[in-house]
Design brief:
The chain is α+β, with helices and mostly antiparallel strands. It has helices spanning about 45-55, 90-95, 100-120, 180-195, 205-215, 225-230, 245-260, 265-280, 370-390, 450-455, 460-470, 490-495, 540-545; strands at about 10-15, 20-25, 30-40, 65-70, 75-80, 85, 130-135, 140, 285, 345-355, 355-365, 400-410, 410-420, 435-440, 495-500, 500-510, 525-530. It folds into three domains: about 10-285, Transferase(Phosphotransferase) domain 1 (Transferase(Phosphotransferase), domain 1, Orthogonal Bundle), CATH 1.10.510; about 340-450, Heat Shock Protein 90; about 450-548. It has 13 helices and 17 strands. The chain has a five-stranded antiparallel β-sheet with strand order 1-2-3-5-4, covered by helices on one side. A hairpin with a 5-residue loop joins strand 7 (about 130-135) and strand 8 (about 140). Helix 3 packs antiparallel against helix 4, helix 3 (about 100-120) runs antiparallel to helix 7 and helix 3 packs across helix 8.
Length: about 550
């Protein structure tokens, strides 16, 4: 399509597909950036609906700024708000599911966005994860309006929508309407909770039969959340909630009963952590209106939000730097992209749950994207290595990873981890093994700070003496003494963690007996050495990063 919307300068392509292309454009005269979606084929309903949506001002709907018909052609262009955030389908492709409170908040945001559009007389027609953007502040925004309007003819009949989320009546040609949007939104909610839509099939005809005839597989959902899912997935439109706002009211009651009065603040905090974790991977935010190719196993996707494959801590829960849940305090101070570059990096803790695993890891937000990626890679590299080693032999056991913030300054973050493995059923007694370690990362470079960067070789004899001075009994389970620190063994023997009062020095003990005699607890001793006993032994650049 060579035609361009007048009054805009195109900056770059954002994507393309069977229906056309999407570009980032700048409005002449200082009007700001817009996402312009060019449609190779437009419908007469599209111009009318674009005008209606232009009057909608809702935080959960990407605003439509206008519509331009192609002179003498069949196409047109939607001029939209540029929405920065992370596409929900990319999150779900990278992980299994969201934490239930996060899924509830996201579902509420989607329903509120639909309610605003329905009040303007416009159905969405293609509510799906690719058309839901999670902003850096945790807000979910609906995008993708108008992309399938041409699939419905002038009588309103047609098969708009993506098959995995298409309501039963739409398969027979019924037009899209608020009830069909509620069905699709509930499919998205179901996928947020389980990692997959309610019905899956390799053939579209089989998928149609499932949507029209199969009972919703609510056994895959938390018991408390099955009632609203059943109402939203009802086979007949009249059995679904009256409208999106009624559905929101019903959902809020369910959420309060199941998760208490703080469900929404904690669910929003979880979504904030999700966005922070995505930012930490170095993935670039997406822009409303970009096109993407179909995901494997899905029927043809139409214009939505571009999805970025990134390893994300889906189902995240955010905690304060002290390790305590945020509670009633608003988890959103400001969108991450708007924070000054000079601000101290924010450390949040993200919880991931998989079968047999509960993992809590630290992630940093607020730094430039590439630096964020480096810092977060360093923070969880050892956890990931231990997971790769432990999973093959788990055999029905469980893995738990706990973490807490030891110390944070403008120059570094020190995180304490406890990695526990409980094997599954075996012929003999089972024991839980726990490995404790710390990771300290340079927030200026993203590199892990190792002991040799902290203590020069000349300081090691005195460091060894001072650590032993504070140790009441440095021996292990079998009376082994700690190994003496030398330049040759420093990286292997000393594992420092930094907390508010000083350095928690973990020392490897001498190994004089058979390896199977030693549990992780017997192989090391931990001593807290106050900063007043260490500062004169530290390298000057490290002291500066420590802020001491």
């Amino acid at each position: 399509m060579d035609w361009q919307v007048p009054g805009y300068d195109e900056l770059r392509d954002l994507g393309g597909g069977a229906q056309g292309r999407v570009v980032l454009a700048s409005e002449r005269g200082g009007g700001g950036l817009r996402a312009v979606k060019y449609l190779a084929r437009a419908a007469t309903t599209l111009e009318r609906e674009a005008a209606a949506l232009a009057r909608v001002h809702d935080p959960h709907v990407a605003r439509i700024h206008g519509y331009e018909a192609e002179p003498g052609g069949d196409g047109g262009a939607l001029i939209m708000e540029m929405v920065e955030g992370y596409a929900l389908d990319a999150v779900l492709a990278a992980r299994v599911a969201l934490e239930p409170r996060a899924a509830l908040v996201l579902f509420k945001h989607v329903l509120l966005g639909l309610a605003a559009a329905h009040a303007a007389g416009v159905p969405h027609r293609d509510c799906k994860p690719a058309n839901v953007i999670v902003r850096p502040d945790g807000t979910a925004v609906l995008v993708g309006f108008g992309g399938t309007a041409h699939l419905e003819d002038e009588d309103g009949a047609g098969r708009a929508g993506t098959p995995a989320y298409r309501a039963p009546e739409q398969w027979t040609g019924a037009p899209a309407n608020p009830a069909t949007d509620l069905y699709a939104a509930t499919c998205v909610f179901f996928e947020c909770l389980t990692g997959a839509p309610p019905y899956q099939a390799s053939a579209e005809a089989e998928l149609q039969q499932l949507h029209q005839n199969a009972s919703p597989p609510i056994e895959r959902l938390p018991k408390a959340l099955r009632p609203p899912a059943l109402r939203g997935l009802a086979k007949f439109p009249a059995q679904r909630p009256l409208d999106a706002l009624a559905f929101v009211s019903d959902l809020e009651k369910t959420a309060r009963r199941a998760y208490g009065r703080k469900w929404e603040s904690r669910g929003l905090a979880s979504l904030l952590g999700l966005a922070a974790a995505m930012a930490g991977t170095g993935a670039h935010p997406v822009v409303a209106g970009a096109a993407r190719q179909p995901r494997t196993g899905r029927a043809a996707l139409v214009f939505g939000a571009i999805g970025l494959a990134a390893v994300v801590a889906a189902g995240a829960a955010v905690y304060s730097a002290s390790g305590e849940p945020e509670g009633e305090r608003s988890p959103v101070a400001a969108p991450l992209a708007q924070r000054p570059a000079s601000a101290v990096a924010e450390v949040v803790f993200v919880e991931e749950e998989l079968p047999g695993e509960r993992i809590r890891v630290a992630t940093v937000a607020g730094l430039p994207p590439e630096l964020n990626r480096k810092v977060n890679t360093a923070l969880r590299a050892r956890v990931d290595a231990l997971l790769r080693e432990s999973r093959p032999g788990l055999s029905g056991g469980r893995i738990r990873v706990r973490s807490s913030l030891g110390f944070r300054s403008a120059g570094l973050a020190s995180v304490l981890y406890a990695f526990s493995v409980r094997p599954g059923r075996t012929d003999g007694p089972t024991r839980e093994f726990t490995t404790r370690f710390a990771v300290t990362v340079d927030l200026a470079t993203g590199a892990e700070i190792t002991p040799s960067r902290i203590f020069p070789e000349s300081a090691l004899p005195e460091l060894n003496r001072r650590i032993m001075k504070v140790a009441e009994d440095p021996r292990g389970c079998f009376d082994e003494e700690p190994l003496a620190l030398t330049a040759a063994n420093l990286e292997h023997v000393l594992e420092p963690a930094f907390v508010r009062k000083g350095m928690q020095a973990a020392l490897l003990l001498a190994e004089s007996g058979p390896a199977d005699r030693y549990s992780p607890g017997c192989r090391r001793t931990e001593e807290l050495v106050p900063y007043r006993m260490l500062l004169d032994l530290m390298a000057p650049d490290f002291r500066a990063k420590l802020g001491r």
